[in-house]
Amino acid sequence: MDLMQMATQILGQKLGGSAGANNDLLGSVVGSLLGGGSDKQGVDLGALVGNLQNSGLGDIAKSWLGDGDNDHISRSQITDLLGSDKVEQAASQLGADKNDLLRGLQEMIPQMVDKSSSGGNLLDSVGGIGGLASLASKFLK
Fold it and tell me: Domain map of the chain by residue range?
């Protein structure tokens, strides 16, 4: 399962209703929230992990990248990370309650990073060895 499928499945299950049944809409919203840049799957995990680090959430990101337990991220941390306007817009597009969306993101984002890092797929999403070295250097500063 690719990252976008995983993201839409997790978020769709959390939101239920019509938003949960519309994978195209969910995919579009996830892409707008989580990058949609260089990663062909619509999610730029390298940028997401970098943004976590730059936002003072590097320890949380490290827990997701490792094989141990994933640390919790709060709804307010997600809002700060992604931007309140983007979260509000995404909730509106999905016809969902903002808090329901944030609860879904609380589960989806750590799982995406965790699953992509355990099998080595994160290497591709950060631009190979060079991108990983750049990402790692941010954690070592």
Answer: 3-140
